[in-house]
Amino acid sequence: MSDDIRWIRSYVLAESEGGLGTVCIYQASSPEKIREHADRADLPVSEIIEVADTVIVRPDPEPAAV
Asked: What is the pTM of this model?
């Protein structure tokens, strides 16, 4: 990926109809860069929402041991 976009993390969601979906968090210079990245990776983009601010109550937990 170029310096214009950086993947932060993704969340896998259980959809109400039984399938799986994702929410991906990116730092990008524009929505167009996100769409360009998605096109190159053959990933769907249904919506891009700008994050206005981040509130951290506590850090992310450590993953559970397998």
From this structure: 0.74
